[in-house]
Amino acid sequence: MTTLPSGFARARRWLRDHPLAFDAALAFCVLIAMICGSFADPGKGHGPTFGTRTPEAFSVLLMVLAASALVLRRRHSVPVLAVTGGLAATEYIFMDPPAPVVMSTVIALYTVASRTDRPTTWRVGLLTMGVLTVAAMVFGSTPWYSQENLGVFAWTGMASAAGDAVRSRRAFVDAIRERAERAERTREEEARRRVAEERLRIARDLHDVVAHHIALVNVQAGVAAHVMDKRPDQAKEALAHVRDASRSALNELRVTVGLLRQSGDPEAPTEPAPGLAVLDELVATFRNAGLPVEVVGADGAPRLPAAVDLAAYRVIQEALTNVRKHAGADARAEVSVVRVGTTAEITVLDNGRGSAAGRAAAESTGDTGDTGSTGSTGDTGSPGSTGGTGDSGSPDGGGHGLLGMRERVTALGGALTAGPRYGGGFRVHAILPIEARTDEPEPSGPAATTGERR
Length: 454
Description:
Shape: rod-shaped
Mean pLDDT: 74
Strand order of the largest sheet: 3-4-5-7-6
Radius of gyration: 43 Å
Distance between the termini: 68 Å
Strand content: 5-15%
Structural class: alpha+beta
Helix content: 55-70%
Number of strands: 7
Low-confidence stretches: 354-398, 438-454
Order of helices and strands: HHEEHHHHHHHEHEEHHEE
């Protein structure tokens, strides 16, 4: 690609930044051209001859007025065309032979065609061509079919066509630029959306891992502290469960944090995500923590798709964690995994203590605290105290347990309901389609949180 000389490039930039100066220079050049052309006599021989006539004062006045009008051609293109066209027609009517005032009309017509739409160009162009051509043929001294008269028609027609072509090209370039900018904005928005969804997913996984394992560690540590002096064997067993739960938490955290590593990192973990295949191990951790859990309908069921399998596992994990934290010391839980047609239904029930009115109030107000236990200031680690000021991981009492479950289920095209049971206890019910819509964006706002968290 060739580069322009620095001086010429600077002059071009200056003229582009000062369009009025450019139009004044153009008007001056057109005036010089018209004056030079007024010295030519069309003649009747083989071409025009120069020096055989001089322009009259009236013609010079018309040329000066027409050239002056071109200075305003950008701001008032149609009025400038009307003025120059009228001056050119006046020259044809009153002067013989006429001076080439029509040159200014050609420039004005080009400006109108390049700065307006095509219908306006057609109407204004045809009107200008017709008026000037008829004036030249009717009032001129040459025959109507002479080349000078036909030249008026040709030059005005070319001005309209050239202006329309320039306008079309400018619109095409602007459209390409606008599409490129819109595509760039779309890519940036899509990248931001994907980053936000990935952050939400990682945050949800971290919450599930931390809430589950830390709750178990807290319970077992409370048991160990409670029986350390009187029953050291039981305390050692509780501490062993603490060690196992903390080791599991570290392993799952390592898997989750490994998602942040770059592709191809040899240190990135490759363990598969947990699913219903390890449901027995999950239930065993709760049983070791003192929560009786009964599982029905999970044996022999066909394996679910990976995304559905992980969502089902996380729903059960979070629901049982909430039962252990909030349902009371004597609570029992029941987990049901059933495939119904093209859906998988996950149900977690508990018989936690607490009045139905209290649980209904928590459901309607968004209270994520204890709905079925006697404690109210948080889990103290004692086996008989499971109070809660909120779901795991939320110091202000606004947990993320049911929110995370609902986001997982909704992202797959399913539905989740959670609320108090009639007569006491709590029920979490998730319906997951086997053919999950994993490509849909996950909800990330409060609008996805109908049915309050525990």
